[in-house]
Amino acid sequence: MGRCSKGLLKIHTSIFSFRIKLMAEGELKDMEQFFDDLSDSFSGTEPEVHKTSVVGLFLRHMILAYSKLSFSQVFKLYTALQQYFQNGEKKTVEDADMELTSREEGERKMEKEELDVSIREEEVSCSGPLSQKQAEFFLSQQASLLKNDETKALPPASLQKELNNLLKFNPDFAEAHYLSYLNNLRVQDVFSSTHSLLHYFDRLILTGAESKSNGEEGYGRSLRYAALNLAALHCRFGHYQQAELALQEAIRIAQESNDHVCLQHCLSWLYVLGQKRSDSYVLLEHSVKKAVHFGLPYLASLGIQSLVQQRAFAGKTANKLMDALKDSDLLHWKHSLSELIDISIAQKTAIWRLYGRSTMALQQAQMLLSMNSLESVNAGVQQNNTESFAVALCHLAELHAEQGCFAAASEVLKHLKERFPPNSQHAQLWMLCDQKIQFDRAMHDGKYHLADSLVTGITALHSTEGVYRKAVVLQAQNQMTEAHKLLQKLLIHCQKIRNTEMVISVLLSVAELYWRSSSPTIALPVLLQALALSKEYRLQYLASETVLNLAFAQLILGIPEQALSLLHMAIEPILADGAVLDKGRAMFLVAKCQVASAASYDPPNKAEALEAAIENLNEAKNYFAKVDCKERIRDVVYFQARLYHTLGKTQERNRCAMLFRQLHQELPSHGVPLINHL
């Protein structure tokens, strides 16, 4: 019985091999005839194969899969079959040659290994198409990784190579074109991403995937969503005119088809394109109402987030914004929109920093980092590599750097670099953060040449920030004319794009430039303008910094008593939420005002006021030491040496004088009287 089974198996194997050879050496119609013969094997009163048997089920599945193939897919299958047969023939010939030349086996061992390696590489690069399920699993896995944990996805070049190999055998695989589009977005390749996106929708229409599920309406659906995605792509790369044209096309097709969902998406993108207009909030409010009406919680929540962001820039109070975000959070938890929960917390972090509440911002950032994702992701991937986490980590690094914790900031940046490699789509966030921290440290240390070299990198990542930093460096190098021209151009640009925060920062730099040029009276109107803007937009920290500058201007004008009263208004927010450098500046200014006010005191009160000023100078020196700001430490010890000399404390005076001399030899002199330097 066993011998009979083995004999039948050999017969069937030889028949199958003969049929494969016939198809491979013949034409495409031979393969079609093969599948027709398979269908005939189930017919008749006594069929060769029963439909319910294991072999029958397998054959029926194979016939069904073949029937679903398009013409191009059938041709690719036939080409792969020919390649498979040719590879098998090559291996058979090689085995026969090896038997005939066994005497030369030792001499040709190395050549055989090289040949085997080349054959294996050829099989990998020219392997046949994956099954439908294998291809779908590969695409869904990589798409999920690109969304949630880009570091675990294949590198851009490797993934594109795999996709090209997949499309070589099945060019009509629409999902592969879409993943290619996402992959090209990672490397900011506008041409290839546009090409892949258009191919995706072309294949979607040609294969009839949409029309099979949605009838003839599927074709129109593909067209309008193709235009919508094209508009989003152009908007991402800053091609706003092309984006607007594509969006108009999407709206036209969606209106013809009465597709309210597509129209809601178009309405959201209309706001994105026109958010710089003064009436854009009306469009956004309408979008949120419509999204709620049509039951689109994701769009409604994004609209609320955008509305909160816009009102934050418009100067609305923090309690109203947080109430709006609370309503948005209810939507997130109700519908398990974990991604939007992360975005909401990152938004709160940014809003608290905008309003100058660093403690609250730090709390929100840490809350986001401690949260686990609610969305289940394949392969044990956590949803912690999104833009929200990148933003939170960048805020965390900047907050630590502001407090002089540079080692902690470096650790956060190191983690950012590991989590978001340079080729990832959110890497620009930590790159800009890193450059800004390095710039600030170089400026604190008086290394203006190093700071100037960092300006180029900052400008490449954020042009407005780069121009502002360039002006700061020029001002520190006493190139006042060039700095003033640059600041005036930047001021006009920021007013045009309504970047109020930067407008105030530029006004403060202009005011500093005026008093360093011995023109404090010209600085006063500029500072009052900055204070009015800070109050109007409720930027508390910038308002406190502006008051600090006003107090300094009054000190220069010879009214230290009024400067001290102003300082009492501004110093509390600075000491509570300010950066360490600003705390030091504030305490240094208090000491200067105390000394200037003590000039008219009687000797006992004057000595007491000078002792209090020395204590404040010690506190300012400690703050400056935390951020390694040697230039300001030099100014403090110079001032202390003068005060100790007035009080007759020779030993303390000599100690401060020696420290001043060491720092003065190490650092370049800025050439400005110390009283004119805040």
From TrEMBL:
Pfam families: ANAPC5 (PF12862), Apc5_N (PF21371). The keyword Nucleus applies. Keywords: Cell cycle, Cell division, Cytoplasm, Cytoskeleton, Mitosis, Nucleus, Phosphoprotein, Repeat, TPR repeat, Ubl conjugation pathway. Its main location: cytoplasm. The lineage of its organism: Eukaryota, Metazoa, Chordata, Craniata, Vertebrata. The mammalian APC/C is composed at least of 14 distinct subunits ANAPC1, ANAPC2, CDC27/APC3, ANAPC4, ANAPC5, CDC16/APC6, ANAPC7, CDC23/APC8, ANAPC10, ANAPC11, CDC26/APC12, ANAPC13, ANAPC15 and ANAPC16 that assemble into a complex of at least 19 chains with a combined molecular mass of around 1.2 MDa; APC/C interacts with FZR1 and FBXO5. It is found in: Cytoplasm, Cytoskeleton, Spindle; Nucleus. GO terms for cellular component: anaphase-promoting complex; spindle. Residues 17-91 form the Anaphase-promoting complex subunit 5 N-terminal domain. It comes from the Eukaryota. This is Anaphase-promoting complex subunit 5. SUPFAM superfamilies: TPR-like. Residues 177-276, 381-413 form the Anaphase-promoting complex subunit domain. Belongs to the APC5 family. InterPro entries: Apc5 (IPR037679), Apc5_dom (IPR026000), Apc5_N (IPR048968), TPR-like_helical_dom_sf (IPR011990). PANTHER family: ANAPHASE-PROMOTING COMPLEX SUBUNIT 5. It comes from Myotis myotis (Greater mouse-eared bat). One of its GO terms (biological process) is anaphase-promoting complex-dependent catabolic process. Component of the anaphase promoting complex/cyclosome (APC/C), a cell cycle-regulated E3 ubiquitin ligase that controls progression through mitosis and the G1 phase of the cell cycle. The APC/C complex acts by mediating ubiquitination and subsequent degradation of target proteins: it mainly mediates the formation of 'Lys-11'-linked polyubiquitin chains and, to a lower extent, the formation of 'Lys-48'- and 'Lys-63'-linked polyubiquitin chains. The APC/C complex catalyzes assembly of branched 'Lys-11'-/'Lys-48'-linked branched ubiquitin chains on target proteins. Pathway: Protein modification; protein ubiquitination.
